[in-house]
Structure formats: C-alpha cells, structure tokens
C-alpha cells in the first residue's frame, strides 16, 4: 500500500483534527448501530492521539472495549468521477469503518495502515460522515497478545474484569496516526517496489510498478538531490543504472527521487507517484553487518512511540526532537520496539541517515519461565501464526522501500525455547525471506543460548539481558563476567554476529547515590559502562542498543514507578547522567569501528 501523498495527479485531505468521540462501556454501539446516525453525547477527541490520557477520567484511561470516533468532511466537487480512498494510519487494535453508515473496512492489528475504497459512497459536493469504532482488546490471536481476566471470588464485584498483557508498555488505544482521504484516477499505481545494488561506482535500482489495469504505460524518472535527471526507464519493471551514484550511508543520507508515471493508452497522465530512493546494500557476512560493503556498528536504542498526553499518537514535534537527541548523543540507529512505527518517522530516518531495525508487534510471547508453554492450541496457535504472517507481510509491504530499514525483527522475547516455536518461526523466517530476499532477519532473544531452538533461522543474534537488574539486583560487580559468558556462548553455539538489543537499568531522574544503588542515575551509568567494557572486548558484538531511549508509560505494577524509567532521557526528553556518558562514548566511536 502506498503512503498517501500529494502528487501531480493525487490529492489528499487530511482529516486530522478534533473528532467527536464516545466510549462504549456497555458495548451497545454495534448492536444499536450507532454508525447509522450522528453519534450522540460525544466529547471532543484529537486525532491522531491515544484517547487514554486526554481526559481526567480514569475509567476512560483504563477502558476495555469499543470506543467510537466520528468526523464529517466535504469532498470537493472537483473529485467527482475519481477513485476516492480513505486511509487510516493506525487504529489500535481492531477497527470497523463506516462512511455515511455504509461499512467500508474492518481491520485487525494496531500498528499498520489500512484503506478503503469509498468511491460511490462518499458524495462529492456535500458533507459526508465517517464513523470508526476502535476496540483495544488483546487476546491470544492478536499481536501483541493478552487475555481478559474475570474474577469469580466475592472480593471483586460481579462482572469486574481486567485486560492482562505480557508486555510492560501501556496498552494505549485509539486513532494513533492520521486519517486521510485521497483521490486517484480510475487507472492508478497500486504499488511500487524498489531494490538497490552497487557495482563499482554505479548504483542499480530495480523497480516494479503494479498498476490497477494492464493497459497503462509506465515511465520512471530518477532525479538526484539537485533535481537533475540521473536515469530514466520505461515499462512496469526494469533496472535503472545510476552512474557515479551517491550512496545512502548511515548519518550521511543521500536520497534520489523516483517519479513514477502511469499513462493512459492515449498518452495522457493517469497517475503519478514519488518515492525517495536511497541506494545502498545490506548484507551479513561472517560476523559482520555490512552496509555498502563496510562493517556497521549499531549504536542506539530500543524506543517507543510514547509521550505525555498524546500517548502513542503521532507527533512531529516529539519525533523531530527525538531525532535531534539521537544525533546529539551520537547514536546511529534504533529498533522500532515493539511494533511498526509511523511511516512519517521512517521518512525522517531515511532523510537523516538513521538506521532502523523494523519489528513486528510480537511482544509478550513468553512468561519468562522455561517450563511455561506459550505455543499451545489454546494460546499462541495456528490462528495466531496466520495473523503473525499477515502482519509481517503487511510490514514488509509498507516499509520495503525505506533505505533506513536494514533488518526485520520477527518477534521480541518469544518462548523460543519451546519445541513448538521451531515450526512457528521457521515458517515466519521463510515468509520474510520470500517477501524480502535482500534484508537480513532476526528475532530478539530472551532464553539463554543453550535453550534457544530457533536462532539458526536468522542472520543476527539479538539479545536482551538485564544482569544486575532483574537478575542479581544490585550486583554490578557481576555484570562483566555474566555478559561475557553469555555473549561468548551465543557466538560459540551459532557463529553469528551479536547485537545487544536491550540492556539497562531504571533510573529516576534526580536520584543520586555514590557508590551507586539501584534506581539512581549513577547506577544506570555504571551498569551500562560495565556492559560496554565487554562489548569492546568481543569482536563478534556488532551493536549496542540501550533500553530505552526515553522513560515510557507502562501498565501499573509493583516493578514500575509511574512507568518504566530505563530511559536515558526522561519522558520529557531531558538527559540523565548516562546520556552524557553515551554521548562521549559514541562520539569517539566510528560507524565502522576499528575492532570490526
Ligand atoms: C524487556 C522487554 C521490554 C521491557 C524491558 C524492561 O523487551 O519491553 O520494557 O524488558 O523490563 O524484557 O524494562
């Protein structure tokens, strides 16, 4: 699915703004068909944003079930006769969409876009109504998974229930990304796929354009950053040769613009789309992660889409601030833990040269106990796997053309020690390789190296570990011994490069004590430093992603003090002591460090 863009032939109406909103605690709306008329008794709700932190109502923050959104829009008369699409950037986690009371889409999965053809349903020249019901319930067949817990005891009132989930970040919900209306002509470009390669000084851009009907003629034109033509091509697929190509490099992005034109048989322009293209290669060779043939060292973070008030709602100010902080701290990469982020953010990463590991929202598929089974017929089962395939395919379809995305992560901390996980992840790894033969794949590990049964299907070992935090809390003196022991075993068992994708400690900004104790800024800084001493000794370690970039909201629980405080920045993006240490460490390290 192509991201909606204004082009020579396409036009967008962004429906972001204040929508009418109504929670449905009694779950009556679908039965009573609230979409048939304008919603009654609504409150104003911003889109994009999570609804949870917008009001003063704790019941809405913790609401389980449906909420309703409604907006009206006028379709310009000039759109008459065109194909009209309604695009929803993200609805967490299930949605049904009606336009003028007619169902146009239903979608499961909160972190990827979907769209509906509303031609003939939305009427040009008058007001139209869009109604979206969004449901936030997580179960074993959603990504991430969850379950509704009910209580049969007398201590809880009848009907009391809670949404349980097995990840810590707060289950924010609502319309997290923009909703857009756009028009194209009846003959249109459906999809574009671009792959790039480098031969000597030349760049090769392979392209495929999928069109709505076979009769159109496709022309492509590649412009460099000065607007000069670098290559042209004809036909719905082909290869463009770019002489003396400028490569897309980490922190030195160079972006060409590919103009794709689809012509009617009479030569008239039917559709036009523009795609930013970065020419680069990625490859894992031995224990090296090569970008353009050079060994790359990942310096950065696991992040979240999370900020005050808006929750997981897209916010350009927060995103640009985050990128400025990434550059300030001398990071070069992040992982979209634990779900696909907004495409607007990937465009920023393409532009700024920040390297991204894209992750599927498969988080919470373990109970952190080797005896527990997660992959069972009544939990993570065939239906879960089918959905996992769908989400993975949609993620690759959405992000395949972003040069910043260099690897796919198929899950975070799954029960990969269970026998049933083997066929499950073998199939997913096959799907990822079939859909994208170019990018390496990984899975982020929780089990120890001798317990993991699936690492052989992947190119890079990504490990999350919390020595001297969840294990041996307070024992900083153990960190180096334990990290070195574990990472060496990963390498010994699988012979693949290793990225530490999570390591860290909660630090409450302003808490100080020396010698360090847990929850102080000093402890966080020292713990990270001790991990680094080990990374610097092991040449198969090709990256360090601190957990986490910034403090973030979590569900309430006794291990969380108003959120997860493992951020190197506070939730308001102010640096803790560890931030300055990282800035100086990473500032002295190259993207291609000597040890590689
Ligand atoms: C890891 C998870 C991450 C958590 C982190 C933590 O991957 O999402 O936030 O632990 O507990 O297991 O801080």
Describe this protein with a few key phrases:
alpha+beta; 596 residues; six-stranded antiparallel β-sheet; single chain; 3 domains; TIM Barrel; 17% helix; Jelly Rolls
Describe the 3D structure.
The protein has 596 residues and is an alpha+beta fold. It folds into three domains: 11-136 and 171-184, Sandwich (Jelly Rolls), CATH 2.60.120; 189-280, Immunoglobulin-like (Sandwich); 298-380 and 395-404 and 430-438 and 466-595, Glycosidases (TIM Barrel, Alpha-Beta Barrel), CATH 3.20.20. Helix content is 17%, strand content 31%. The protein contains eight helices and 32 strands. The chain has an eight-stranded parallel β-barrel, surrounded by five helices. Strand 27, helix 4 (382-399) and strand 28 (405-412) form a beta-alpha-beta unit. The longest helix has 18 residues, at 382-399. The model has no long low-confidence stretch (mean pLDDT 97). Beta-D-glucopyranuronic acid binds next to loops. Keywords: Glycosidase, Hydrolase. Pfam families: Glyco_hydro_2, Glyco_hydro_2_C, Glyco_hydro_2_N. Residues 12-184 form the Glycosyl hydrolases family 2 sugar binding domain. Residues 188-280 form the Glycoside hydrolase family 2 immunoglobulin-like beta-sandwich domain. Its EC number is 3.2.1.31.
